[in-house]
Design goal:
This protein is of the alpha/beta class. It has helices spanning 20-31, 50-63, 84-92, 121-130, 150-165, 179-187, 198-202, 206-209, 226-236, 254-257, 272-282, 289-301; strands spanning 4-8, 11-15, 36-39, 71-77, 96-101, 134-136, 171-173, 192-196, 243-245, 309-314, 324-327, 330-333, 343-345. The structure holds 2-OXO-1,2,3,6-tetrahydropyrimidine-4,6-dicarboxylic acid and zinc ion (ZN) (2 copies).
């Protein structure tokens, strides 16, 4: 019998599903392995209201391939005009599990995001009262700040003051990429957690730039130096419940990435579990994988973990990977970890 891992079906705490043909093409890549996911609201135009989230959820549910059981957990995109009552009602209905803060201009489809945090304070105060988590794309946007420093500067100049002002607000720092942010989360007394992507556990910034420019490794926050990657691996495999999987699987068709101004995003849904098993095995922490991928985020968002399980087996030969998936709008390239994967999800 080959080495086998049985996990509760995982929880992806940060997922981009898009809409239309791309939604149809990518959803099965997640629903095949995952029981549930926190779905990002950065469509064009974004999902801002309860009503929009309800309609988007219906489109996702409609697109789930037959035979898969998948629960989309919805978020609202915070703007300076968001109505606190609408947010509270969407939360009370059970539909919305978090609100997402994109500093305007920080990442893909963030132009409707927040320019002056002060203007969003009434919503944030209400969220602190009702216990609704805020998910944050934690990067400052000022052109004067080096792109590799934008997360660390955000933690110091925005996140820390916000948490001091609203200590009851539950905050998820999304896609943590720096040792600075890992340390900040570990030191926080409460109400703060961080999601970590598979790709930030695997690549450092050399993957993007050394030996030629590799657009499929470009995402935001951009991958950092090796010491940061090692800090992320230590956090993910530590068993600390404040760190959990958020894949940030962010599909873009190849023509949008392989060009003079390619957009940010790594599509990894298809091989996330194989990549994670590889990383956790390397770190001698396979027994911590279920907590990271399936349990910590469920507890944080107050959603029961899945009853069903998923089984991974370590096979001698590398698993076959598609490389690209087809959509009605072009091909999407799958994240290539640059090493052979041996953990196969049993289907
Ligand atoms: N990062 N791309 C996208 C989102 C994320 O910041 C993120 O959450 C996207 O394409 O939506 C990316 O690089
Ligand atoms: Zn983000
Ligand atoms: Zn994202």
């Amino acid at each position: 019998m080959p080495p086998t891992l049985i996990l509760r079906r995982p929880f992806d705490a940060h997922l981009h599903l898009r809409d239309g043909k791309v939604l149809q093409a990518v959803l099965g890549e997640t629903s095949r392995d995952f029981a549930q996911a926190i779905v990002m609201p950065n469509l064009v135009p974004p999902i801002v209201t309860w009503r929009q989230a309800e309609d988007y959820r219906a489109r996702i549910v409609e697109a789930v391939p037959r035979g898969d059981r998948f629960k989309p957990l919805m978020t609202l995109y915070l703007t300076e005009r968001t109505d606190p009552d609408d947010v509270a009602a969407a939360h009370a209905s059970g539909l919305v599990k978090a609100v997402k803060l994109y500093p305007a201009g920080a990442t893909t489809n963030s132009s409707s995001g927040v320019r002056h945090l002060e203007r969003a304070m009434p919503v944030l105060e209400r969220m602190a009262e009702i216990g609704l988590p805020l998910c944050i794309h934690g990067e400052v946007t000022g052109a004067e700040i080096d792109i590799f420093d934008r997360e660390a500067v955000f933690v110091e100049t925005i996140l820390d003051p916000l948490r001091r002002r609203l200590p009851d607000l539950k905050v998820t720092m999304e896609h943590v990429t720096t040792a600075d942010c890992v340390d900040y989360i570990k030191e926080a007394p409460a109400k703060l957690a961080g999601s970590i992507t598979p790709h930030h556990l695997i690549i450092n910034r050399n993957a993007i730039l050394a030996g030629g420019i590799k657009p499929h490794y470009y995402c935001l926050p951009v991958a950092k130096r090796e010491r940061h990657r090692l800090a992320l691996r230590a956090a993910a495999t530590s068993g600390d419940s404040r760190f959990f999987l958020g894949t940030d699987s962010a599909p873009h068709v190849d023509s949008m990435k392989e060009c003079a101004c390619g957009c940010a995003g790594v599509f990894n849904a298809t091989n996330t579990l194989s990549c994670l098993a590889h990383v956790f095995e390397q770190e001698d922490a396979l027994e911590k994988l279920e907590a990271f991928a399936s349990l910590h985020a469920s507890a944080w968002y107050g959603v029961p973990p899945a009853d069903e399980t998923v089984t991974l087996m370590r096979q001698v030969d590398p698993i076959g990977q598609p490389g690209k998936i087809e959509t009605g709008e072009g091909q999407i390239t799958l994240f290539d970890p640059m090493f052979p994967l041996h953990w196969a999800v049993q289907r």
